[in-house]
Structures are given as C-alpha cells and as structure tokens.
Design brief:
CATH architecture of one domain: 3-Layer(aba) Sandwich
Strand content: 15-25%
CATH class of one domain: Alpha Beta
Largest sheet: 6 strands, mixed
Number of helices: 12
Strand order of the largest sheet: 4-5-13-10-11-12
Bound molecules: pyridoxal-5'-phosphate, zinc ion
CATH topology of one domain: Rossmann fold
Helix content: 25-40%
Shape: globular
Length: about 400
C-alpha cells in the first residue's frame, strides 16, 4: 500500500541543516529558504508514470510528490493540468520551429498562483494554521485569499496601491484583511514582517514557507507528462520572485531521479524580466551568485516587479546549472507581444506571459534558441486580469449608422 505523500523532511540548500516536515517552519536558522525533500528511493520502487493514467486532471494527480500527507487536508478549486498548446503561427512569426505555450490563465483565480496557494494553504491547514499573512504584487494575494477562505483560514494581505484592481477585489470578496501600501512589494514585505512578529501569524511570503514552491513545481511535472516524458530544450519563464522557475527546476530533477525522463538532460531554463526591473538579469550577466536590489523598479508586467528576491541565489543556480540564461525586454516590446499573441493565436495572455514571449523572440534572433529546438513559454496568467494594458482606439457608431467598410 503506497502512502499518499512521500514527503520526507525539509532541508536548507545553503547550510544543509534538516528539519521535520511535520512542524511549522519558516526560514532555516541561517536565514535561507527551506526546500522539501521526498523519499524518492521509496517512491521509485512502487510508482510508475503509467500509474498517473486515469487520475484526476488537477495538480493533485502528483500527490506522492506533494507535501500534503492526508487527502482530507487538500484544499482544491481544480487547479493545474492546464493545456500545453502548440502556437504554430506565433512560432513561425518568431522563427521558432516547435513552440508550446503552457497556459496558466486557465487556473482558478486566472493565474499560476493558484498552484502555490492550493498546496501552500492545504499544508498550512494540515499544520493547524489559523491565520496567515503575505505581501504580494496582487495575483498571489488574490489566490491565497480565496484558497484561505475555502480552508477557513484568516488571510492578511498587503499589496502595492498600483497592483491590478481586480486582485484587490478578489481579496476583498474572499473576506481577507487587505491593506495597500504606497510603495513596492519589498515595502509590503517589511510591513508583513512586523505583523508576523507582533501577532504570531504564519508568514507565507515568497519562500518564507517551503510549500508554495511545491505547488509551482507541478508546472514542470505537467510539462514533462504532456510531452510524454520528453524534455523540452528550453523553458522560458517570466521571473519576479522566481518561485516558478525554482519549482520547475526541482520538478525536472525529481523526475530525473525517478528515472521517468526519456532524455538524458535538463531543459535550459530562461528567466525573463522587464528592463524596468531586471536584478536577476544583471546578476546573471556578471556571473554573480546573488542579485542586488534594483533601484526605482517599475514595469507594466506588474507580477515581475520584484527588486530583490529572497530566492535569487536559487534562481541563478538553476540558470547556471541548466546552461540557461536571463534576458530583459522593454515594456514596449512586452505590450506589443501581448497584442501579437492575441492576434496570431487567439490567446489573450497577461503582460508577464507576454514578456516571456518577447524574451523567446529575442533569444531566437540571437540564435541562442537554435533551429529545431522545442521551446515552452509559460503564460503565467490570463490577460483578463490586466484590462488596462491594451488600449482600444475604435470608432463609435450611432444607432442606425453604417459600418464604414
Ligand atoms: C502573472 C504573474 N506572472 C509571473 C509572476 C512571477 O512569479 P515568480 O514569483 O514565480 O517569479 C507573478 C508574480 O506575482 C505573476 O503574478
Ligand atoms: Zn540554513
């Protein structure tokens, strides 16, 4: 009889200290984020890729590789198993032969943040958490508010006043305690840290608890399964805090250890940022192991406006270890690409997703993406969450007017 989860313990990627996964943990004593380890040897003995056939089409199909130990603690709105679509017309336009888009806009709450929230909130419930708090650029706060509501957990959310309007409404509708800050996500983070210290809330800031990343990891598991366990050459990800990229890297390493991958390599991972906020790109270009705080950060791709990420060293490590790269694109190119993807493919992607497309185009122009390679672009959310990024300049008719053809 197999266990529901093969979670084994938590470990620190910096100092290697380990912790039990059955108690509430935030950072390692050394200040680094903690990661989740699984009993992969145990899993390997009894689990085959074929066992996934017929399972539910949500991220919970991979429950052995997720940290929730009791199925009754699962808090789900049907997240995951989003489509991996061929975008041939856009691919032709950019000169990329095999181009797929993983469309995270189909998740509950409209972004990939639902994955981290589903797994993070479920595990928080399992650990007996009653109240949690987080800073956010909007989408994560919306997802965590809604999943917390479903779990009966109280959520306190702090986001920049400039965050997408709809995300504020999602938090409010879910009954979260929402605060806006006249500043950036880093300012929201400091306010949350105070609240956590004063009120003993569970801090679910990016990478300050180990489980959100496990939810995001499922993007990598799904990409591999949807390509029939073949490994794409390149995966392109719009990077803010970088949790998605760290998660995808972790997914492929776990699958490699399980022996499920049909190709003996890892995908080259790419972090795309806006030229208005590109700390990871700057660090990668200099070959550094950590990033520096980006001054006066600003971009219309709001989710990737993160001037300094706690997990920057993990993102950079993933880029170096997979022979990947980091690239910055201008906001102008991002907004152009958003409209081009919609016009060529009928997919209304979010500006962060559009940034990833703009990055893909640049990398093909530079021949970093080579002929015949399989490329997966992550569209991290639906364009519906950012209605103001597209300007509409069209004629207005009076009733009875003829359309000027
Ligand atoms: C739509 C969207 N894409 C990408 C990101 C960046 O995510 P990550 O923290 O995984 O880098 C965010 C984060 O807010 C987001 O909302
Ligand atoms: Zn440590």
């Amino acid at each position: 009889m197999m266990a529901y989860s093969y979670v084994s313990h938590l470990y620190c990627p910096k100092c290697r200290k380990t912790y039990r996964a059955t108690e509430r943990r935030q950072l390692c004593a050394c200040g680094s984020p903690l990661l989740v380890a699984y009993d992969l040897d145990g899993l390997k003995a009894g689990w085959r890729a074929d066992d996934l056939k017929g399972r539910e089409t949500s991220l919970w199909r991979y429950h052995e590789l997720l940290p929730v130990e009791k199925p009754e603690n699962k808090v789900s709105l049907g997240e995951g198993m989003t489509p991996l679509l061929s975008l041939n017309a856009w691919g032709r336009d950019a000169g990329i032969d095999r181009l797929f888009m993983k469309d995270e806009g189909l998740n509950p709450t409209g972004t990939f943040k639902a994955r981290g929230a589903a797994v993070g909130v479920s595990k928080a419930k399992e650990l007996g958490v009653r109240a949690l708090a987080m800073p956010t650029n909007g989408n994560a706060g919306a997802a965590w508010s809604l999943y917390s509501a479903r779990a009966g957990i109280e959520a306190t959310i702090v986001m920049p006043v400039d965050a997408p309007e709809i995300t504020k409404k999602e938090c409010a509708a879910a009954g979260a305690k929402l605060f806006l800050v006249n500043g950036l996500i880093s300012d929201a983070g400091k306010i949350v840290a105070q609240a956590v210290a004063n009120a003993g809330l569970y801090d679910v800031s990016t990478l300050k608890e180990p489980y959100r990343i496990e939810g995001k990891k499922t993007m990598g598991l799904e990409i591999a399964e949807q390509l029939n366990w073949h490994v794409p050459d390149v995966i392109i990800y719009p990077t803010g805090g970088g949790v998605g990229l760290i998660g995808i890297y972790k997914a492929f390493r776990e699958l490699r250890e399980l022996g499920w991958l049909k190709d003996d390599r890892l995908p080259r991972l790419v972090a795309v940022q806006s030229t208005g906020c590109a700390p990871i790109v700057a660090a990668w270009e200099k070959g550094l192991l950590e990033s520096e705080h980006w001054p006066n950060a600003t971009t219309r791709a709001f989710g990737i406006n993160v001037p300094k990420a706690l997990g920057d060293f993990l993102v950079l490590d993933a880029l170096y270890k997979t022979n990947g790269c980091a690239i910055a694109v201008e906001d102008e190119a991002i907004l152009e690409e958003q409209v081009r993807v919609a016009a060529l493919e009928g997919a209304f992607v979010c500006p962060e997703g559009a940034a990833a497309f703009a990055g893909a185009r640049r990398l093909k122009e530079k021949d970093w993406i080579r002929a015949g390679e399989t490329v997966v672009v992550l569209n991290t959310g639906t364009g519906l969450k950012y209605p103001d990024t597209v300007s509409v300049d069209v004629p207005t008719l009076e009733p009875g007017d003829l359309i000027p053809l």
